[in-house]
Amino acid sequence: MATEVENNAPAMDTKEIKEEVAAGDNKAEEAKQEVGAGDAATPKEKEPAPPKVVVHKTNYEKDVVYLYQFSRTPLLPSLSPYCLKVETWLRLAGIKYENVDHKLKYRSKKGQLPFVELNGEEIADSVIIIKELAARFNHDMDIALTAEQRNVAHAMISMIDNHLAWVVMWWRTKYPDQVLKGYKVNLQHALGTRIPNGILNFCFKFAFGRKWFQGSKKVKAQGIGVHSPEEINAFGQSDLKVLSDMLADKPFFFGDEPTTLDVVVFAHLAQIYFIDKEVTYPLRDYMTESCANLVGLVNRMKDRCFSDWDEICTNLDLNSHLPKPEPEQQKDNKEAAKDEKEAEGKELEPDDKDIEKEKADDKEKAKEKEVEENKEKETK
Fold first, then answer.
1. How far apart are CA 250 and CA 245, in angstroms?
2. DSSP 3-state assignment of 49?
3. H or E segment to which residue 261 belongs
4. Closest to 302 measured CA to CA, from 278, 347, 344, 266
5. pTM of the model
6. For 70-89, what is each residue's pLDDT tens digit?
7. Res 333: pLDDT
């Protein structure tokens, strides 16, 4: 996929052919014969056409953000903290957006999810998406923060995206079967296929952590994966403790209103907190037992940004936030009127038995009339 590219190549300057040419210069003579008296200009070279904008959503609506992310699950809107981050930011900012149901078929030009399309242009990577959209829609959630607060927020977001996220990723690649159970993932629905879930689950357990996704290799390459499970869980607990101490008893990290840091924290902690209780996960247990204020933050952000959370998780609807099209009342009314008319017609039309009875009565009356006429003739 390509983004919109401007053509900055300068146009060719027009050159005049002078009358003073050397007698032996055949090329100049040919040019003189073609253009005539010498005042004509050389033809202007044709400029290359600018590349066409290539997006998946070709019939897009102006200024509507089209979000490409993972499918819904029965426990939270997205298994990706980065996808959930972008959608939460869009909702909190009040920007009109639409999820594209692509069944995990598309990736950005960088090979990742999420990515968005806006006015025929792709924007990839959650950090860049939020930065670009904030500028284009003039909506900076951190505008009221001081320079020091912005620096603290930047440091905390870096810790979450580049450390805590890998602690969670390690658990997911180490125990892929727990991922399916913990989030109650329906791969058949997520991939839009008729292949039985049993086969899909088996392939997922093999591919997610090892072959296709190469999750284990990535986690080891990052550095987290070389440690023991106990050490990795301790890393995650330390990150949660830092966030809990920073939040303290405030509703949000920098006061009464959420900022970008609150969005990022919510998106990542939701991946930990909303794992099914039947699945053992030490980091979730630590968070609920020792970081109650973080649990409160997650629920506040959920209530503020996802009033349709239950509907999302029940129906797995990507766009439950959009108004549904009205039912075709006119069509229904026409069909009802047609049925009613047919019913009235049936009531008005005489039954076959009634017709036969009327015919029999007419014959009987005709016979009686004939008998009476015969009696009158005999008396005469």
1. 10
2. coil
3. helix 260-273
4. 266
5. 0.71
6. 989 999 999 999 999 999 99
7. 54
